[in-house]
């Protein structure tokens, strides 16, 4: 039998009400009702045996990506959102200790630091900028070398859930064996007993994905520490092309045999560092253009709103006033 701590459930409620339960769906209205009746709900949730509990099948939708394609996303039942968050909270700090320490300058995405305010991460930590800085530093160090860029196909939806249980036990110790079993049982229930995939959208899934990625990081470390990772995007630097090909061969076999994952044929490749740097500059320039375009669009919307407020006294239902019409037209 395994039950969640009341303190973990309290933290989970704080997280879902303050930071939302999902990155893609609107916040469910049920959370307000849950908060109003929290004493009774908490008693019910803390009494559940998660080794026998069967979660509700989540709502599945499609979210538009920046490149025009779609990703499959999941909205959990509100009570299941709280359970998933509380269960992950109880192991989050241990999982962070299992990862490569931040001071090593290798893994930059989602450094875990649960706060009393309900956040899993350090909100003031600008790791994306440091990730880019470290990538450029390695590129300068291997300016005449090669880089293997790796990207996993449909990462979240292809994660092998049984491996999650094993890694929780490995990362947290035997004292957390029950947590690993509960997590696998919960995820299997969400997937209707399919042992593949974690829900896309809830923040706890980020923690679980980083646990899987941490195991891959440790494999790369047996060859080299000259790499950086952001989620499932990995860049590994080498002096020679032969070294890059050897590691990519071994890593491809590892992620498939240990995690049932595969690298993208489009995004996984070996490049000269010179070509890699040029590609980075192109991407940064494109991102800069997108940011500028968003800024102009926002400014135009604000300007249009001001214009509408200025001309609001014109009523088209009144007798037509040609002079006033010209004024309005000129303003627009």
Structure in words:
The protein is flat, with a radius of gyration of 25 Å. It has helices spanning 6-19, 30-36, 38-46, 78-98, 127-141, 155-158, 161-172, 177-190, 203-221, 241-259, 273-310, 322-331, and strands at residues 59-64, 70-75, 146-151, 227-230, 233-238, 269-272. It has 12 helices and 6 strands. The mean pLDDT is 91. Helices cover 55% and strands 10% of the residues. It has 332 residues and is α+β, with helices and mostly antiparallel strands.
Q: What would the keywords be for this entry?
A:
single chain; 332 residues; alpha+beta; four-stranded antiparallel sheet; two-stranded antiparallel sheet; 12 helices
């Amino acid at each position: 039998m395994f039950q969640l701590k009341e303190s973990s459930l309290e933290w989970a409620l704080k997280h879902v009400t303050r930071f939302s339960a999902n990155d893609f769906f609107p916040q469910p209205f049920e959370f307000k009702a849950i908060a109003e009746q929290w004493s009774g709900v908490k008693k019910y949730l803390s009494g559940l045996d998660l080794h026998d509990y069967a979660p509700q099948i989540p709502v599945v939708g499609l979210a538009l990506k920046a490149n025009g394609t779609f990703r499959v996303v999941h909205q959990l039942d509100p009570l299941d959102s709280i359970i998933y968050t509380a269960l992950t909270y109880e192991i989050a700090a241990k999982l962070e200790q299992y990862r490569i320490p931040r001071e090593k300058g290798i893994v930059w995405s989602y450094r875990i630091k649960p706060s009393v305010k309900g956040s899993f991460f350090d909100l003031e930590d600008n790791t994306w900028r440091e990730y880019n800085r470290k990538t450029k530093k390695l590129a300068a160090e291997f300016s005449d070398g090669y880089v293997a860029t790796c990207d996993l196909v449909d990462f979240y939806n292809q994660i092998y859930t049984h491996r999650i249980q094993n890694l929780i036990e490995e990362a947290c110790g035997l004292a957390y064996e029950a947590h690993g079993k509960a997590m696998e049982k919960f995820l299997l229930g969400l997937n209707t007993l399919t042992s593949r995939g974690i829900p896309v959208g809830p923040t706890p899934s980020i923690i679980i994905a980083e646990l899987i990625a941490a195991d891959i990081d440790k494999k790369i470390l047996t060859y080299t520490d000259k790499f950086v990772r952001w989620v499932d995007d990995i860049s590994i630097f080498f002096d020679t092309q032969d070294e890059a090909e050897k590691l990519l061969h071994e890593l491809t076999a590892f992620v498939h045999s240990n995690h049932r994952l595969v690298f993208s044929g489009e995004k996984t490749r070996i490049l000269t560092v010179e070509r890699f740097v040029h590609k980075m500059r192109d991407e940064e320039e494109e991102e800069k253009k997108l940011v500028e375009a968003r800024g102009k669009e926002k400014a135009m919307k604000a300007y249009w709103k001001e214009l509408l407020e200025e001309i609001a006294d014109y009523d088209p239902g009144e007798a037509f006033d040609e002079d006033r019409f010209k004024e309005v037209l000129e303003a627009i």
